[in-house]
Amino acid sequence: MSFDPETGEFDFPGWDTDQVLQDLGEFIPEKNILHLPSQLKPYECDGLTTHRKMSRLVVLPETIRQCQEIMRYCRQHEIPVIARGAGTGITGGVLPDDLSIVVSLTKFNRIEKIDPLQRIAVVQPGVRNLAISEAAKPFGLQYAPDPSSQIACSIGGNVAENSGGVHCLKYGLTVNNVTGIKIIDSEGELIEIGGGNCMESPGFDLLALMHGSEGLLGIIVEITLKLIPVPPATQVVLAVFHSMVDGGKSVSDIISSGIIPAGLEMMDKVTIDAVESYMQAGYPKADALLLCELDGNQVDIRLQMEIVQQILKDNNAFDIRTSQNDEERELYWTARKSAFPAVASIQPDFYLLDGTVPRKALPEVLKKIAVLSKQYGLQVANVFHAGDGNLHPIIMYNIEIDGDYEKAVQLGSEILQHCISKGGSFTGEHGVGAEKIDQMCIQFSALELLQFHRIKAQLDVSGILNPGKAVPVLHRCAELGAMHVHNGEMPHADLPRF
Ligand SMILES: Cc1cc2nc3c(=O)[nH]c(=O)nc-3n(C[C@H](O)[C@H](O)[C@H](O)COP(=O)(O)OP(=O)(O)OC[C@H]3O[C@@H](n4cnc5c(N)ncnc54)[C@H](O)[C@@H]3O)c2cc1C
Predict the structure, then answer these.
(1) Where in the chain is the domain with CATH 3.30.70.2740?
(2) Residues of CATH 3.30.43.10 domain(s) within the chain?
(3) CATH dotted code for 2-104
């Protein structure tokens, strides 16, 4: 095998399926090793369904010991390993290939402990995000980060992607809500990172490093999470506008008033109409819709609500409604969280983007998206975590039309490059995976990418952890640099060619 820790270049030798099946059978029960095409089919992609490949083997360990043995075996036989949670990722982070073994963590689905005194939960990586808040509810507690996929996605996947959600504006991303994890590195060693109850710990912050590591630095096998009290009261205000610019301005004004909402989300006309026909939440017809959630005690909410409503009126909101009970509040949010399936119900082929921009750039970026959408002749729906400046443009295309998919990808690339040019990033919360690897060459310098490879090589000495994802090999960027010229400049003309 050749693996160059400096550049990330790899070349694994390949393996014999029957031999590996037989070897793994020594320490993994037969029922937990999948190898028939019908068994492997569900693992050929994640939520990025345009990218599919059949794996040769999927292993479902049930114990940490089994995980360690798999890693040691793979290390010894130079077999790449792809950790997989629930497979709801949308960047192809778990996309298999012919050389790798997929390690599915779905059997690690126990909540080990809810400790109401310390306000923590200790959970296995395969536990669903929503199941944690459900288990904590009897203690008056909840786990704050709430990706829209929370009904299905695993907490291990949340850590590996550093996932966000509606509540993250106020309560922080996954990284701000995890106090410790246990991982297995590529040597099969079990490493405990963080876990204490202190605000600060000595040494490098490896816990932060593991957040967003996309299966490249280790397999996460246990997570200790912060729980927060369920707020005594919560209310959502829904406001609609004749323009996205007015909605965007309201977002900036709410944040600059000093209020930090527990959620601040926006959607455009295309999304509002799609959601309404999908689940009849009672959203009014409009060009922009804003949902703003306030939580805390009743007095605080009442005071903040007055300020928010005034801001909305000042920005020409023409219909303002406040949720009158929990059912109504949940209906508003469920509708928002159904935006992706709702769009899929009107146009099954779509390309979902995940860019971030500074909040103040939102109106300008939305205008640019509208211009590009017209130029490419492809409809774009917009739904976003407005408070975080995290956009999710959904580009609709028709796979049956020749060249439509390629056009969608090109349009997506232009939108994301525009986000970068406005001081933002091409990924907000969905990660890089296989899909956005080329954009890494645009966002980062050659030196920064080299440092990423060096860091990976420390925890993944043999380079077997999810190779080819998230951090591009430098050779790839060099080729792109030669192929694409941006603003008259080659982005990475300085990169070495190997
Ligand atoms: C409808 C829909 C809505 C979504 N909404 C949001 C949202 O609001 N916010 C958001 O952030 N994301 C969202 N996502 C994206 C996705 O749900 C998240 O990225 C989620 O965290 C992925 O979790 P998973 O268990 O499905 O991980 P997978 O898809 O199985 O894996 C994702 C990545 O994590 C790695 N990984 C998984 N488990 C482990 C482990 N135990 N150890 C090491 N690496 C591991 C994989 O190798 C892969 O690189 C959405 C997706 C869908 C389909």
Answers:
(1) 347-421
(2) 2-104
(3) 3.30.43.10
Q: What is the residue type of 471?
A: V
Q: Are 461 and 478 in contact (CB under 8 A)?
A: no
For the Cβ of 161 lying below 6 angstroms from any atom of ligand 1, the answer is: yes
Rounded distance between C-alpha atoms, residue 142 and residue 238, angstroms: 24
Q: Cα(473) to centroid of ligand 1, in Å? A: 23
Tens-digit pLDDT profile for residues 376-397 = 999 999 998 888 888 999 999 9
For residue 156, the ligand 1 atom closest to its alpha carbon is: 41
CA of 455 to the centre of ligand 1 (A): 22
- Locate all alpha helices (DSSP H) within 112-243, ordered by sequence: 129-136, 155-161, 168-171, 206-210
CB 227 within 8 A of CB 292: no
Q: Enter the CATH code of domain 347-421.
A: 3.30.70.2740
Q: What angle do CA 16, 20, 26 make, to 5 degrees?
A: 160
Please, where in the chain does CATH 3.30.465.10 lie? 111-229
Distance from the CA of 19 to the center of ligand 1, in angstroms? 32
Decide: 46 in ligand 1 pocket, CB within 6 A: yes
Task: Assess whether the C-beta atom of 424 lies below 6 angstroms from ligand 1.
Answer: no
Nearest to 329 by CA among 299, 300, 276, 293: 293
- The string of pLDDT tens digits covering residues 423-467 is 888 888 889 999 888 888 888 888 999 999 999 999 999 899 999
Q: Which CATH class is domain 233-340?
A: alpha beta
pTM of the complete model: 0.91
Mean pLDDT of 180-209: 88
92 lines ligand 1 (CB under 6 A): no
Whole-number Å distance, alpha carbon 176 to ligand 1 midpoint, is 17
Is the backbone of residue 488 left (phi > 0), alpha (psi -120 to 50) or beta?
A: left
- Regarding the beta carbon of 174 and ligand 1, being less than 6 Å apart is answered no
Give the CATH number of domain 111-229. Answer: 3.30.465.10
Q: Say yes or no: CB of residue 323 within 6 Å of ligand 1.
A: no
Token pair 């709702």: residue? 342
